[in-house]
Each structure stands twice: as structure tokens, then as C-alpha cells.
């Protein structure tokens, strides 16, 4: 089968409930049909709750109820779904912050960089994932998975692209505050520009989080950007745009370090 020339994506910018059953039961209504890739936010299976609160009681194994429902809905809709959850770890008091991707791909990514910044200490309650790069092929494109705070680490994005990623998928729960929307948008555009890659970044909405889910093309143009409320955004990623960007700005080929 020849690689497809485009990938249709949907970003579901929705707030996670504190009840995992509610979130699991909402999946079927939230995931739209007619898209190759549907991205939900970080921690969608259950929100973080109050800062510093214990989330270990909401951790699930993989396979488990949430991952199974993501797979079921993805199959029902004929799509690939990426969504965040807390996954049981060896240290049962500190689970992983994990993305599950189900549908045409079957991958799990455990967040490498924990959010010990801006007065928060995610590492007090969660375990960092191993330093492993999570990539998956989808419709002739290669996805590289990252989570929220990972966006502030250009070396991870570059490593994913060096291994073949041309779409960086970034589910998030980007905490609101001064300059935070500007950081979110600026960093998403920077990761796209410096790697001549698409960035598909889906966050939870306000008031706690910033919202502003967005898709950025490989030359840094914002194809779609949400506001701070709940909404579903759509965009089309085009192979010709990716190829032309890498011809126009061959920075990946010009690297010397």
C-alpha cells in the first residue's frame, strides 16, 4: 500500500472528570468519526485533582479498563485514539503518567519529564517513565509521542524526529497562569520549526488549564488553535507540505552536532 498523502486529525479539548468511570463512559460520545487520528488530553482517564493529591488509587494496569475502552472506541470509529491516564507502576504509590494509543497503532508512552516547575512537584506523586522514544507509523506518517512538560525539552523532540517522526503528538494538561498560553504556543511552534515537523498539541481547557489546543505545520504556521473552553478542532496534515518544508529549510540535513 502506498503512503497516504494526508492525515486527518481531531483534537478533543475537554476537561477530565475526577471520576474515572465518567471519563471512560464519555469516550464513545467524544471521539468523532471520519478522522485518522483523534487526540484527547493528558490525564483524561482521571484529572490530577488538587495539586499534590494522591492519584495512585486511580492508577490502572495496561491492559485495563481505560485502555480497553480506548481500543474499543477506536475500532468502532475506525480511527486511532491517543489519550492520557495514570498507569500502575512498580512503585505503587507513584504511578506513571501514560499515553495510550489504540486503533491502527498499539503503543504506550510513559511521560519522561515530570512537571517539577512553577511551584509544582509532579515527581512527588508520579514516577518518570524510562528514557525511551515512542514512535508509531500511521497512514504513511510517523508519530512521535510526548506529554505536556516534555514540550519544554527540545532534545526529546529532536530525538524523535532523528528516529523518523514527522508528527509530534503532545497531549497536555498545561496549567494556566501568567505567560503560560504564550509559552505553550511559542514552544509548540518552536518544536515544529526547528524540526520541520507537524505538532499536534491537545490540552485540557480552562479555567484550571490553558486550553489553546493547536496544530502547527512544519514551517511554523498555526493551522488551527482553540480558545480556553471545551471544543473539538480538526486539521489536515499534508505530505506535500512536510516534504516542501524540508526542501525549503533543510536544517535536519545541515546539522553538524
UniProtKB/TrEMBL annotation:
Keywords: Hydrolase
The organism's place on the tree of life at top rank: Bacteria
Every CN hydrolase domain range: 7-239
One term of GO molecular function: hydrolase activity
Pfam family, one: CN_hydrolase
Gene3D superfamilies found in the cross-reference section: Carbon-nitrogen hydrolase
PROSITE patterns reported for this sequence: CN_HYDROLASE, UPF0012
Family that this chain belongs to: Belongs to the carbon-nitrogen hydrolase superfamily. NIT1/NIT2 family.
PANTHER family: DEAMINATED GLUTATHIONE AMIDASE, NITRILASE-RELATED
Protein name: Carbon-nitrogen hydrolase family protein
Amino acid at each position: 500500500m502506498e503512503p497516504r498523502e494526508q492525515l486527518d486529525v481531531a483534537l478533543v479539548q475537554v476537561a477530565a472528570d475526577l471520576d474515572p468511570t465518567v471519563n471512560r463512559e464519555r469516550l464513545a460520545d467524544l471521539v468523532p468519526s471520519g478522522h485518522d487520528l483523534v487526540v484527547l488530553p493528558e490525564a483524561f482517564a482521571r484529572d490530577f485533582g488538587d495539586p499534590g493529591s494522591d492519584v495512585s488509587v486511580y492508577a490502572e494496569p495496561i491492559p485495563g479498563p481505560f485502555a480497553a475502552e480506548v481500543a474499543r472506541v477506536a475500532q468502532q470509529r475506525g480511527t486511532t485514539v491517543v489519550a492520557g491516564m495514570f498507569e500502575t507502576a512498580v512503585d505503587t504509590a507513584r504511578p506513571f503518567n501514560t499515553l495510550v494509543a489504540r486503533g491502527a497503532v498499539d503503543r504506550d508512552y510513559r511521560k519522561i519529564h515530570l512537571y517539577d516547575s512553577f511551584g509544582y512537584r509532579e515527581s512527588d506523586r508520579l514516577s518518570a517513565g524510562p528514557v525511551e522514544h515512542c514512535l508509531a507509523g500511521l497512514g504513511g506518517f510517523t508519530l512521535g509521542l510526548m506529554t505536556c512538560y516534555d514540550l519544554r525539552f527540545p532534545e526529546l523532540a529532536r530525538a524523535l524526529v532523528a528516529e523518523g517522526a514527522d508528527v509530534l503528538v503532545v497531549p497536555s494538561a498545561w496549567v494556566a497562569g501568567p505567560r503560560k498560553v504564550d509559552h505553550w504556543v511559542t514552544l509548540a511552534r518552536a518544536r515544529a520549526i526547528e524540526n520541520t515537523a507537524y505538532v499536534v498539541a491537545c490540552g485540557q481547557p480552562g479555567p484550571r488549564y490553558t486550553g489553546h489546543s493547536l496544530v502547527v505545520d512544519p514551517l511554523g504556521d498555526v493551522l488551527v488553535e482553540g480558545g480556553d473552553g471545551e471544543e473539538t478542532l480538526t486539521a489536515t496534515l499534508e505530505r506535500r507540505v512536510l516534504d516542501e518544508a524540508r526542501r525549503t529549510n533543510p536544517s535536519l540535513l545541515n546539522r553538524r552536532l
